[in-house]
Amino acid sequence: MYNIYNKIEFNEDLAKLVSYLTFDGHLAEDLKCFYLCSKNKETLSDFENLVYNKFKIKGRLEKGMGHGETYKYRVFNRQISKFFEEIGVPRGDKVTKSFLIPKWIRLNQELSRAYLRTAFDC
């Protein structure tokens, strides 16, 4: 992994971020950005806070495309995107790729709960 992130704690917040990106989010194929899409501003705010608390970086809120009024909270950062891929977030079109829940989440009951709770919220 990238040396800058050796101090990143693999905790419930990181498991939630991975879940958000796996279900209602997206990790760009070229790893230049990641985002969460939702019509629920509280969910987007939670994602924004998790990203900021974990990586000390802010993204931007954009009007999304889709049914009804949706929004995207998008973060452009190649290094963090590469980190997400390394820890198990699928990149690109998740519909056409097979992927598993990352092992570091599957092997920890608390992290698995946080991941699944977030997945069901999505």
Walk me through the structure.
The chain has 122 residues and is of the alpha+beta class. It has a single domain (3-121), classed as Homing endonucleases (Endonuclease I-creI), CATH 3.10.28. Helices cover 43% and strands 16% of the residues. It has a 4-stranded antiparallel β-sheet. It is globular, with a radius of gyration of 13 Å. It starts with 11 loop residues before the first helix and ends with a helix. The model has no long low-confidence stretch (mean pLDDT 91).
* Total domain units: 1
Percent range for β-strand residues = 15-25%
Q: Treating each run of at least 4 consecutive H or I residues as one helix, how many helices? A: 5
- Mean pLDDT, to the nearest integer, reads 91
The total strand number stands at 4
Please report the distance between the alpha carbons of the first and last residues: 28 Å
Question: How much helix, percentage-wise, in residues?
Answer: 40-55%
How would a textbook summarize the main sheet?
4 strands, antiparallel
Secondary structure elements and pairings:
Layout: H1 12-23, E1 25-27, E2 33-38, H2 41-55, E3 60-63, E4 71-76, H3 78-86, H4 103-106, H5 109-121
Antiparallel strand pairs: 1-2, 2-4, 3-4
Task: Give a nutshell description of this structure.
The protein is of the alpha+beta class and 122 residues long. The protein has one domain: Endonuclease I-creI.
List keywords for this structure.
122 residues; alpha+beta; 4-stranded antiparallel β-sheet; 4 strands
